[in-house]
Structures are given as C-alpha cells and as structure tokens.
C-alpha cells in the first residue's frame, strides 16, 4: 500500500480587494505572488505504471499543464501513516516517529514529532483544512491547527496493496510514485525527471508547500522545495 502516490500542489490567483472593511491577517512573504493557497492531494495505491494504463483524464490534464515525474519516491516503509507523515512534515519517519511499527490509538492519537505543513500554516494565520478517507488521519489533526476537518470516525477496511496484494520495504513497485504540480508559474508539460541530479521525494511536498506559502519550518527538513518545476520569476 503505497502512500503519497500522487502529490498535486494547486494554487489560485491572488485576489485584490478594492477597499477591505478590515485589514486581512499579515501573511509571510511568498516567492510567487500569484500563489495564495496550496492543496496537496494524495491518491492511495496508485502506481505509475497503472496511471499510464488508466484514462485518468483529470490527472493527465494536470500532467500536461504542469510539471511532473513518474519516478518520485515515497518512504521505504510505503504504508499509509509513515509516508503521509513524511509527506506532510517534510522529514523522514525516524524523525517524525510515525514508523508503522505500532498500532496507533484513535482515542489518544500520537501526533508526529515534527510539525506538519498545516501546523506551520496555521501559525502564520492561514486557514487550513484536511479531507481524509481514513479515521487514522486524526494523527495529523493536532488541536488548534486545522480549521476544517472531514474524515471517517471509524476505522475503515484495509486497502489492497500495490506490490501484488501486499507491499514491501524498498520494493520498487511500492516506492516509485507519480508526483505532479500545477499552478501559477509552473512550467507547462515539464518532465522533472529530465533535470540532472534531481530526485523528487515525498518529503519534498511539504518543503515545496512551505516555500510557496513563505513558511519558515521550525526545524531542518529532509525534503527540498522542487523549484525546478517553476519558470523564472518575473
């Protein structure tokens, strides 16, 4: 069960109010003015080879309109919580502590040891939201950090895996993932696998979101912003 098999960062144009009734919260400086919000979408269990065989019209349009790689990597333990925690914190499992070796309680969730991008955004007066298909994602909802949350209350049935009917550590069928980014300033139809020495990893999703929103991580990230996906700033 590969997690964070697709990370799509979407951004919307800045809106300028003619005469706001009250000054909006002060946001940190952003490297791309036109990028005002970021959405990260993860599709569970989507292998790159399966994506190539599917019609997937929306994903194909995002690929054609944005930058992408079908050779990004998720965590070695490619299961739901460890990989999603790395995707949202920007650090490896040994640092965020969600390693998949223990059963996490829903009554007393064990939050990641590193802050998620939602926590950093909330601290910078951004509105945050999480829509999840699994109750276990409560571990990302540290109190006071996510404005809107939608997720099941009860544990759902297990998914089918992506390496046959299971998944394995450092299995290429589990670790290789498609990664797509689209929005203002993103290069159109740009294959990131052509960039020399660039290996996109799941931790890069949080790092890229922080960069776009002007957030300053409270600790060093293992991921790096995928700035190669963007055209030179005006």
Q: What can be said about this structure in brief?
A:
With 234 residues, this protein is α/β, with parallel strands linked by helices. Helix content is 22%, strand content 12%. The protein is globular and about 45 Å long.
Describe it.
- The chain has a single domain, classed as Alkaline Phosphatase, subunit A (3-Layer(aba) Sandwich).
- The protein is built from 7 helices and 7 strands.
- It has helices at residues 48-53, 57-65, 80-89, 93-96, 117-123, 172-175, 203-213; strands spanning 8-10, 39-41, 67-73, 129-131, 148-150, 176-181, 190-191.
- The strands form 2 sheets. It has a 5-stranded mixed sheet with strand order 2-1-6-3-7. It has a two-stranded parallel sheet with strand order 4-5.
- 38% of the residues are buried.
Counting DSSP H or I runs of 4 or more residues, the number of helices is: 7
Mean pLDDT: 83
**Main beta-sheet annotation:** 5 strands, mixed
- Nearest-angstrom radius of gyration? 18 Å
Specify the oligomeric state: single chain
- Look up the CATH topology: Alkaline Phosphatase, subunit A
Measured distance between first and last alpha carbons: 41 Å
Residue ranges: pLDDT <50 for 5 or more in a row? 1-20
Structural class designation: alpha/beta
Tally of strands = 7
The name of the CATH architecture is 3-Layer(aba) Sandwich
Class, according to the CATH hierarchy?
Alpha Beta
